[in-house]
Amino acid sequence: MTVTSARAPRRRDALSRQRIVEAAIELLDADGESGLTVRALTSRLSTGRGAIYHHVAGVDDLLAAAADDVIRAATERTADGTDPTTAIRDLSLAIFDALDAHPWVGTQLAREPLQPAVLRIWKSIAVQLQGLGIDGSARSDAGAALASYIFGSAAQFAAGARRSSDEAKRQNYLDALASAWTERDDDQVVRDAASHLRDHDDRKQFMAGIDIFLKGIT
Amino acid sequence: MTVTSARAPRRRDALSRQRIVEAAIELLDADGESGLTVRALTSRLSTGRGAIYHHVAGVDDLLAAAADDVIRAATERTADGTDPTTAIRDLSLAIFDALDAHPWVGTQLAREPLQPAVLRIWKSIAVQLQGLGIDGSARSDAGAALASYIFGSAAQFAAGARRSSDEAKRQNYLDALASAWTERDDDQVVRDAASHLRDHDDRKQFMAGIDIFLKGIT
DNA sequence: ACCTGAACACCGTTCAAGT
DNA sequence: ACCTGAACACCGTTCAAGT
Fold first, then answer.
1. Per-domain residue ranges for chain A?
2. What transmembrane ranges does the database entry give (chains A, B) (predicted)?
3. Does residue A99 contact residue A51 with C-beta atoms inside 8 Å?
4. N or C: chain B end with fewer CB closer than 10 Å?
């Protein structure tokens, strides 16, 4: 009685770093940060657990690469030839929209300053600041400030965007948040903030911050 | 032959939420985010695994409570009676120093906008903006912008601060980061940014951003 | 060289049993 | 009511064995 091997047949199409990164983005978009597990990934790619370690260093590396993919697409969409102020606003909006579509990127950007996606954003900003004639340490201060503002906003909006699959859910979330705030601290200043929280527009508020910043550097 | 129970004797001094939060802060300060595990915590508190769940909802709740403890201490140190602009600068510095001493807080702040520590910072800022005569949606835009800037900076500096236990280590880290950047992208604008990165001062750069912001809202 | 999948060394959380 | 610690259902990563 011959016994066939229990081992699964070998996959035919080769794995690659890019294929793995794309699968990771699909998992992250579908289920958030917790959706990216080596087990889910290898099952989706029909491969063994250890296989991905031939192409990526580990889960941290994979998350950074996935975020960089998203940010690359966003920064490349910015038009050349416009004036630097408009370019900074366009760039900011492109990043905002990318984060809105992929909320997990917001959390990831705040995690590690060394990562490629962060360098990409820094560089895009620095180029425009150069266009505004800002140089030396003034440029690096302004660039760092704008980048930090974007990263901070990204992280804050990410939590909201995760729940904004539909408008009702988003409103529920904001109402609950506003109520939790006033419940915890019923100061007038908190009530004001909570009431603005209930009906604010993330995108508009984000751009208001960009404009405060632009006014501050000119 | 009588057999004594293998069970450990019951602890005498009662657990409390505050005792657990304090132990968590000690673990986080000593070993960073990865140092806070239920096992490490219950071993330090000489108690059983499940005991902490009588006082905290879980690890996420505990992290948020620990961050709030640190931020409370920082915001309470801000003096009354000074003019709002000085108060915002003092508040920012107090938060910066708290994050520098407890780098894990920077990462935690970026994780969840609903948490107490975030509300605390929002409120401290809003009070001062009110003092500057900024009201309505202008206040909530300015407050959100400043808070986002602080959260973004916090996360960026956290990664550096974790390595800055001594000056040589910090310089090594910055040099490696600057080299990695220019290696990846040898554009002039990146070389400039990398050279400023090598010898920048986190605290000064953070305050430069606060000042850009203050200029932008007045 | 690349892939497979079992094994390893961890996690957070739950819960029956004790005091 | 509070605590204990085993059990459960997961993780990421490594590595001998296969192709």
1. 79-218
2. none
3. no
4. N
| Residue A5: CB less than 7 A from any atom in strand D | yes
Q: Are B76 and B91 within 8 A, CB to CB?
A: no
Q: Which residues sit close to strand C, CB under 7 Å?
A: A 6-8, 10-11, 14-15, 46-51, 54-55; B 5, 7, 10, 36-40, 49-50, 53, 58-60
Q: What is the pLDDT of residues A41-61, one digit of tens each?
A: 999 999 999 999 999 999 999
Contact A173, A160 (CB under 8 A): yes
A102: left (phi over 0), alpha (psi -120 to 50) or beta: beta
Q: How confident is the model at residue A165 (pLDDT cuts 50, 70, 90)?
A: low
pLDDT digits (tens, 9 = 90+) for B164-179: 667 888 888 889 889 9
Phi, psi of A113 (to 5 degrees): -75, -15
Per-residue tokens: A6:
């229990």
Compare all CA atoms of chain B with the CA of A121 and give the residue at the minimum distance.
B190
Q: What is the mean predicted confidence (pLDDT) over A54-72?
A: 97
Superfamily of B79-218 according to CATH? Tetracycline Repressor, domain 2 (1.10.357.10)
